[in-house]
TrEMBL record:
Name of the protein described by the UniProt record: Glycosyl transferase CAP10 domain-containing protein
Domain Glycosyl transferase CAP10: 542-851
Tree of life domain: Eukaryota
Molecular function GO terms recorded: transferase activity
SMART domains per the UniProt record, alphabetical: CAP10 (SM00672)
InterPro entries: CAP10, O-Glucosyltr/Glycosyltrsf_90
PANTHER family in UniProt: KDEL LYS-ASP-GLU-LEU CONTAINING - RELATED, PROTEIN O-GLUCOSYLTRANSFERASE 1
Stretches that traverse the bilayer: 133-156, 176-196, 203-227, 233-250, 271-289
Originating species: Xylaria grammica
Sequence similarity: Belongs to the glycosyltransferase 90 family.
The entry's keywords: Membrane, Transferase, Transmembrane, Transmembrane helix
Entries under Pfam families matching the protein: Glyco_transf_90
């Protein structure tokens, strides 16, 4: 409608309107109200017969309004069955989000007023309404001009347009295309208002709109997702409106210029209501039984596939039993000889009993693009990073086998580079001279567009093939040309005032369109359409990595190219705390990264220094652990501003469990207080706080699962408004005392532990695996140990939408308790072998040997061969 598209130039209004197809089901009711003789807001001349018909039609209009109102409520309930909510949090207390439903209704009411008045204009004498028609045309042209201006601006100035008009290029395209199809709807609607009553036109329009929406949701095809809400809806409306109008006019043998009487319109409307009611009844029946069937999930099939893949990896991870076989396996895996001093690495790995000798595919894939840059450029870019410490980089320098640190490191982050130096020192004597830039922030930093990355990888394959064919291999060069620049080491504190033009700050701003989408292929969903409706899940987006409702491909689950809806469902993508990223391929070493970023992964100082420490003596056997899901933490996903926290992963998880707890408390309080977990034991190791906060969920077996989830402490990474909203939402009131943090060792009293991303990766996961409890992991960030810790073998993977959390908990806390214990024990045993400090050093040693070759000017001749 006119009001809808005039106001669609602002994202908030756009968001409101994208939530509104169901709300518009009430449009016929509002039209009936606006058109009632007692509530006409603007008195315009109509047909002479209308005055005579007013008195006799009052009862019919009221009856029509009542039926339309009931129909609107029915549509709302049906749509709730058809759609799947994302779990985005609606904040408690007074906030602007609380006015969204009111705004929706207000817009629909304004549309009803416009429809009613346009109907009267269409059925009035032309000489009396020329001024009104002029105003209506002007409004439509103004709306079109505004949208065209935004579209042209976006295409001409793609970088600054998002800052100035608050919309991305993809969003501008959607607005323009939506408006294009809406124009057809408006034209057809205005034409029909000259022949049909406004009630009938609004009913047909909203009826077909909502029908197309529900059908597209139920079909759930990618085409429907790409076609998006309003384009498919508007097209369907146009077809139904035009075709239906022609049929009725033909049946009545009336020309288009002749209007139908009110009673005939109401009769047609009544028949249409019957048809819609029948359709909705069928859909309701289908959705209801589909929901009943989907209540029972079993991860057996994906669990079996995951374990099979894990067993296959283990079979090839340590095939080599000698240096000779390790060299041969290296060549077969990666198509080139190992780097120099590979024999020293092999001795080091064997000396610490490393269970992994051959499988280091993560290093190979991380470093592959850097073969596409010259060694001199890589050295230059590394020095550039260290010359700009304001980028939050820490420098480690290796010369003649000795390590030293850059003096330009913030005191709060100094411990990180100190730990890195401690990690490297045992094998630094075997490394060539190099400078290394370590990312000291939580967020990853390098997002290279797909065209550039494709070029780098293509060039890399050429360079590596040249090395593969060489027979006479040499060791590391002693003097690179040009040599490493060390001038920055003697610069005073003025160095902190430097800033690199290669990096762009995106702190507290969405980054999906600017950084993530360009890293995807042009035909990927991330570049084809935007997911406007943040409250409703995209059904098809997770399908490439899901099977039977569970994560089947953990690696692919972090790929954002096929998941544009995740732009709204993770704090890192919605509002990162400190984000300064580059689209150029800089050699930055990071603790973790998103799938679409090109940072080089290295073992985290947090983990090496055991900041989250597991104390085995405070653990208990599986049989003595509470059958409960436990999580404590802070809302550290990003910086909460302008309501962005409502979409953060941790906030959605806590809200999800809070909603379940509210249901349990309302309907099952007696059983809650009589739960067997509360009489399990009087063991002093069970925290009273854990019992006080625990709530139980029945899963159909004799045992109950206790839910023990909460934020702790005050909210800090947020502006004043959002801090207050988070506090009220999760703690009950603005003045409520926040729960205090518990001892980290409390985790080991519970069987089910949930690991969620924070500002970067979560540092809790490795202690969780070591504990013998069952870890559940929902993560966008990936770390160095991804290839050696396997989903369904050592932990339970969760999709970032968290749809699979309750089904997984229901299974592993009940009928699948045996599988839960087996996975937990397998994770514990493998962590004791493969996730030690020594294993981190083995990984780091091999990583830096590989990197030393890449930055060597003679890298196409550098390698290790037996007998040298």
């Amino acid at each position: 409608m006119v009001s809808t598209y005039v106001q669609s130039t602002r994202p908030f209004i756009r968001y409101v309107l994208k939530q509104g197809p169901v709300v518009k089901a009430f449009l016929p009711f509002f039209v009936a109200i606006c058109d009632h003789p007692y509530t006409r807001f603007i008195h315009l001349p109509r047909h002479a017969t209308d005055t005579d018909e007013d008195a006799s039609s009052r009862v019919s209009v009221v009856r029509f309004a009542v039926v339309a109102l009931l129909w609107g409520f029915a549509v709302t309930q049906l749509t709730q069955l058809a759609e799947t909510p994302t779990g985005v949090v609606c904040p408690a207390g007074w906030c602007i989000e609380r006015f969204v439903p009111l705004t929706q209704l207000a817009v629909v009411f304004l549309d009803a007023v416009i429809v009613s008045q346009v109907s009267r204009l269409r059925q009035s004498n032309q000489d009396q309404t020329s001024r009104s028609w002029y105003l209506l045309g002007s409004a439509l042209l103004t709306s079109a001009a505004i949208l065209s201006f935004l579209a042209v601006w976006s295409w001409l100035d793609p970088i600054n347009s998002t800052t100035n008009v608050f919309l991305t290029r993809l969003e501008i395209r959607d607005v323009v295309l939506d408006s294009f199809f809406a124009t057809f709807t408006l034209v057809f609607g205005v034409c029909l208002l000259g022949s049909f009553h406004a009630n009938l036109v609004s009913l047909v329009t909203t009826g077909t709109t909502v029908s197309v929406l529900i059908l597209s949701t139920s079909l759930g095809s990618t085409a429907n997702a790409i076609w998006s809400d309003y384009r498919g809806i508007a097209t369907g409306s146009v077809v139904f409106l035009g075709f239906g109008a022609l049929l009725h006019l033909r049946k009545a043998n009336l020309p288009i210029s002749v209007s139908l009487h009110r009673d005939h319109a109401l009769t047609l409307g009544r028949y249409y209501i019957y048809a819609l009611a029948a359709l909705f009844l069928v859909l309701f029946h289908a959705f209801f039984f589909r929901a009943q069937e989907n209540n029972v999930f079993s991860p057996s099939r994906v669990m079996a596939a995951g374990r099979s893949e894990s067993d296959n990896w283990f079979a090839h991870a340590t095939k080599s039993t000698s240096l000779e076989s390790a060299v041969k396996e290296y060549r077969q895996r990666y198509g080139l000889p190992p780097p120099p001093n590979f024999d020293k690495w092999y001795e080091f790995a064997r000396s610490v009993n490393s269970p992994v000798i051959d499988a280091f595919d993560q290093i190979n894939s991380d470093l592959l693009p850097f073969w596409g840059l010259t060694p001199a450029l890589l050295r230059e870019r590394t020095t550039h990073l260290l010359e700009h410490p304001s980028l939050s980089m820490g420098g480690l320098l290796i010369q003649d086998g000795q390590t030293s640190l850059s003096p330009h490191v913030h005191g709060t982050h100094r411990w990180m580079v100190d730990v890195v130096e401690e990690m490297v020192k045992p094998f630094s004597q075997w490394l060539p001279d190099m400078q290394l830039a370590f990312n000291l922030d939580d967020e990853c930093r390098v997002a290279v567009p797909t065209a550039d990355m494709t070029h780098f990888i293509s060039t890399a394959h050429v360079a590596r093939s040249n090395l593969q064919s060489k027979k006479n291999l040499v060791s590391f060069s002693q003097t690179p040309s040009p040599p490493w620049d060390k001038g920055f080491l003697d610069v005073d504190d003025s160095i902190w005032g430097r800033w690199s033009d290669s990096f762009h700050v995106s702190s507290k701003s969405p980054i999906f369109s600017q950084l993530v989408a360009p890293t995807c292929p042009a035909d990927a969903p991330a570049n084809q359409y935007g997911w406007w409706n943040r409250k409703t899940k995209c059904r098809e987006c997770p399908s490439p990595h899901m099977e039977n409702g569970f994560v089947r491909n953990w690696t692919l689950s972090a790929d954002l190219c096929h998941q544009p809806d995740l732009a709204h469902l993770h704090g890192f993508l919605t509002s990162p705390s400190a984000m300064a990223a580059s689209r150029e391929l800089f050699p930055i070493f990071s603790q973790a990264r998103g799938h679409n970023f090109a940072d080089i992964l290295y073992p985290s100082p947090w983990s090496f220094n055991e900041k989250a420490h597991y104390e085995e003596e405070k653990d208990v056997d599986w049989e003595h652990k509470l059958n409960s899901v436990y999580w404590r933490g802070a809302s550290s996903d990003g910086f909460a501003v302008r309501g962005s926290w409502q979409m953060f992963l941790r906030a959605r998880f806590v809200h999800l469990t809070s909603a379940i707890r509210g249901t349990i408390m309302k309907y099952d309080m007696l059983h809650f207080f009589r739960g067997r977990q509360f009489s399990r034991s009087t063991d002093a190791s069970v925290s009273p706080t854990a019992l006080d906060r625990g709530l139980q969920v029945s899963h159909g077996s004799n045992e109950q699962i206790m839910v023990n989830v909460s934020f702790v402490g005050s909210f800090s990474r947020c502006d004043q408004r959002d801090c207050a909203a988070e506090h009220t939402t999760f703690y009950g009131s603005p003045s409520a005392e926040p729960p205090e943090s518990l001892d980290f060792q409390e985790h080991w009293q519970h069987r089910h532990l949930v690991d969620l991303d924070g500002a970067g990766f979560s540092g809790r996961f490795l202690p969780f695996v070591r504990s013998g409890s069952l870890p559940y992991r929902a993560a966008l960030f990936r770390t160095w140990w991804e290839e050696r810790i396997h989903p369904w073998k050592h932990y339970i993977p969760l999709d970032l939408r968290l749809d699979d959390f309750w089904p997984a908990l229901n299974y592993f806390g009940g009928t699948g308790a045996g599988d839960a214990k087996e996975i937990a024990e397998a994770g514990r045993q493998w962590a004791q072998k493969a996730l030690r400090k020594e294993d981190m050093q083995v990984y780091m040693f091999r990583l830096l040997l590989e990197w030393g070759r890449i930055i060597d000017d003679k890298r196409e001749d550098v390698g290790f061969s037996l007998g040298t």
